[in-house]
Specification:
The protein has 332 residues and is an alpha/beta fold. Helices cover 41% and strands 21% of the residues.
Length: 332
């Protein structure tokens, strides 16, 4: 008797640990769910959402998580095929001083032994390499913000079908050195002259994949981030006017936004935000990275599917050997 029919084989179980601030929770859920749906191309995928309990949240964010997310405590005793861990806005100058540092490092250790592969995004990528290998991120002179040209730098299956030249959104104040990464056994998947390392990976018990860029972003995500920071400046919450995202707006919109910046620098007032919104009315925003993002995530899902199948076949072979041994011992 072979009991392999009792082992589910067809669903890829993926957890998403969403650590984004309250205002971005739903958008991040939508972005990753949409990207995975597009990448799956018919492969059955089951998503479950989690959040680290130590990420500071207002009442509305706590209610949303309590209503729509599973407790992180439910994660520690289970296995997932894949995991995605998002970043968040830093609050401390050192990652180790963040209030969620202990929970995040526990997640790194859990993912190593309980997933086939985990994707670490932005701040989560920096935290994971710091915890695993002591690689410290470094503060950039200015925010790396906009669309950046990159090249494929690896023949790993994750890069199968990815074009040699691609663009990827970035939005970050920090970077990790390619020299330090390669010295600690990491491999670069994609890089850019101005972007630095875009994506990289390391294979140990689990395949860890790291994105400094944001393949999950929608066409207007950079716009929303830029508008958020403009609003913060106009309200006096930030001391400096934000950089215009690179290679993102068309020439006309970029010129008008630069003129608006000059006005804001000379007469800072919140009412100017209405002019900012007027400038962008009808502006076409690119999404030249979507097909590349879909290809990379599709490769990742196929990797998960292959590893899941391999693991299930190993379990079946073990079960069959045990069953055969029991029959022999019983004289059947």
């Amino acid at each position: 008797m072979n009991n392999s029919a009792n082992i589910p084989r067809n669903i890829i179980d993926i957890g998403i640990v969403n650590n984004m601030p309250d205002r971005a929770l739903r958008a991040t859920e939508r972005q990753f769910a949409a990207l995975i749906h597009a990448a799956a191309n018919g492969m059955p995928v089951r998503l479950s959402f989690y959040a680290l309990p130590d990420v500071p949240r207002a009442d509305a964010g706590q209610r949303h998580i309590a209503s729509h997310y599973s407790s992180i405590e439910n994660l520690w005793d289970r296995h997932l095929d894949g995991l995605i861990v998002t970043g968040t806005e830093p609050r401390a100058s050192k990652l180790t001083d963040e209030p969620y540092w202990e929970s995040l490092t526990r997640l790194v250790e859990w993912a190593e032994h309980n997933t086939h592969s985990t994707i670490w995004s932005c701040l989560a990528a920096h935290a994971a390499v710091l915890h695993r290998d002591g690689i410290n991120r470094r503060r950039l002179k200015e925010k790396r913000f906009g669309l950046f040209e990159c090249i494929r730098a690896s023949d790993h299956p994750l890069a199968a079908g990815v074009p040699q030249h691609l663009v990827m959104p970035h939005s970050r104040w920090n970077d990790v050195s390619e020299e330090e990464l390669t010295a600690h056994g990491y491999s670069v998947l994609t890089r850019g002259e101005d972007a630095g390392v875009d994506a990289f990976f390391k294979q140990t018990e689990s395949l860890f994949v790291f994105f400094q860029g944001h393949p999950e972003y929608e066409a207007n995500t950079l716009l929303l981030e830029y508008g958020r920071d403009v609003g913060r400046y106009l309200r006096g919450e930030n001391p400096t006017y934000p950089l215009l995202p690179r290679n993102y707006f068309n020439n006309d919109a970029a010129d008008r936004l630069a003129a608006l910046q000059e006005r804001a620098l000379s007469e800072r007032r919140e009412s100017l935000f209405a002019d900012f919104q007027t400038v962008l009315t009808g502006n076409h925003l690119p999404n030249g990275w979507h097909s590349t993002a879909t290809q990379i995530y599709g490769n990742w899902l196929r990797y998960l599917c292959a590893r899941k199948e391999q693991r299930l076949n190993e379990r079946i072979r073990i079960a069959d050997r045990v069953y055969s041994h029991c029959r022999s011992a019983a004289g059947d």
